[in-house]
Amino acid sequence: MKRILLVAALLAACGGPARTVIVNGREVNYDDAANDVLRRGKQAQDAGRNDEALRTYREVIARFGDSSAADEARFREGQTLARMGKLQDAQVKLSDFLEKRPNSAFKKDAALELSSVQTKLGNPQAAAEAMKTAISQMSDAEKQQQARSIAETYAKTGDPGEAAKFAARALEAAQTPEERAARLVDYQNALQAAPGAMIAQLVADLDRRSPAWPPAALRLARLQLHTGDRAHADELARQILSEVNTGPVAEGAQSIQLAVSSGAAVKPNLIGIVLPLSGEYKALSDLMMNAVALAVDLQNRSGVQVSIKDSKGEPDAAAQAVEDLAREGAIAILGPIALAEGQAAAVRAQQLGIPIVSLSRAEGLTQVGEYVFRDMSTNSAQARAVAQYAQKKLGARSFGILQPDSPYGDEVTRFFWDALDGASAAVTAYEHYPQRTTTFKPFIQRLVGRTQEDLDERKEFSDEAQKIAQQISSPYQRRKALQALRNQSAPVVDFDALFIPDSARTVRLIAPAIASEDVITSGCDQRELEVVRKTTKSDKVRAVQLLGTNLWDNPDLVDERVGAAKYVQCAIFVDSFFAQSQRRATRKFVDDYDAAYHRAPGFLEAHAYDGAAILRKIIEERRPQTREDMRNALAGMKSFDGATGDTVFGRDREAQKPLFWLWINRGNILEFDPEGPPPVPPVISADARTGSR
Questions:
Q1: Which is nearest to 588 in space by CA: 298, 332, 294?
Q2: Bond prior to 160 in cis (omega within 30° of 0)
Q3: H or E segment and range at residue 31
Q4: Of 60, 326, 486, 571, which cross-links 73 as Cys (Cβ 3.0–4.6 Å)?
Q5: Using one digit for the tens of pLDDT, what is the confidence trace for 441-468?
Q6: Residue 273 contacts residue 336 (beta carbons within 8 Å)
Q7: Are 41 and 57 in contact (CB under 8 A)?
């Protein structure tokens, strides 16, 4: 008996006899059978047959739940659900797996997958916790291998410091030049988002021979320069150049050295001017230089000196011009004007610590840094102003938008739409057209529900059309009757105002086409409305308010010889400058410009004049001795009454000044006070208008 018990104990200690199952009539080892089913599931998953893979993994779990293969099957079940887009189900399965199998060999893989799922579900905190769980299970080699995906997850979960740390490891692990270039872009993006303290720690922790050290050191040096710590920025730039001597990082380090050295040799009375004096914008720049000449002596015969550089309308040339002016000792820079060159000049000015008053409309420009100011109204500011005025002062609640398929049309439309109060205002009609089209009838018909397809959906139209088809046998007479029926069908005007962000030349074609669809736009003309009332035999007739942008500010739009003037009667739009304004400072500038050059100035000339005059005023009155002094003087400027309005710089360093509000009245573009009564009657709700839904 003792011998039998001993044998039993030995068998138990050894795990007992091998467990078997019957598969296709054969007795097979339990674990071997489980692994065979698991292998088929993995093959299906690799081939993208996710439904088949999911069924197979669930078979492993159901039939072989005690096998080692079941753990992997449970993990892969959650992974497959994630790949199928069933994120909620995947989250449940993976979370359950991690809770119930804390010692599983697949804990790390499950945690990584769960982190990715939770990121896609918009649960950054949970994703970060899952990522930490995964990383805690990794060896150093595994962390290096998974560095890219870890960095991406940390970036998405709002942990930019950890993202930068693992992006550095991903760069170090890159094998090919192409892979290194791609990982460098990821790393630089991570550095831009990381806080300064984390970058400083990263620079301290990285080996200087690592390809990740120079970009991190350059980012830290720029932060030090930005905060005024010029000595440490200069020292770090020297260290960078001891490791790399070519490429963008080396050029960045050299720019920092230039900023430090040029800061010590500032000429307090020297203004730099950067404009595209050659290239496609040359003609505009020539006019702007004429305006600048009214503010400062371009021949340097006065106390304020100028140095003029050509940006060529190119980003690289603009950045180089800023660098050259910094080296010359300019205390501040005015310009340039185009979008891309404006951005490049602003970035380089911020890097060098030299104040720049940009004349570019590039959105978000002043966000580059505290040395970047702007004295130019942006498209977003104008679009928001028009949308808000239409809502608050005109009472518009529903809007139509007719826009060109162009970058300008897309941008301004987006800003206008975003400025509508979602609780009480909405876009109820929208249509767009090719940028260079000259025929607008089909687009306007779609806007107001007057295409054949739209009319066929109206019961009253289809019933009447059917009667015509039955009662008139002559094809010619039938066609004439149907055409008359179409013309008699009222447009569906379910909007109070119509916004058209396009040029005056195009609006001259659009406005008559709108009128031809029986949409009334002359709401301020009581005589015109009375004619419409008599024609329609309705007292509820109400016009749609036309809204435009600064591109409408052109005398061609209201030229009676063209014939479009009466169709834009009562339209309202804004501009950043209006040469016919009676504002005192504006009038003086226009008179001076006309006396000198025998022509009226435009908005670019006005802004160039104001920018130069602002810098001259600060130099003469505040006498800044350093670029930081000039920056502080610009930021704290009380008020400047210029050609484009009474100007101060806001906390975002954008010029804050009143726009010029304009409306069209009997062939004239006139200015009005937006704070006073509107020049046109407020709109009424769409349901009170003839032909509305």
A1: 294
A2: no
A3: helix 30-46
A4: 60
A5: 999 999 999 888 878 887 787 777 778 8
A6: no
A7: yes
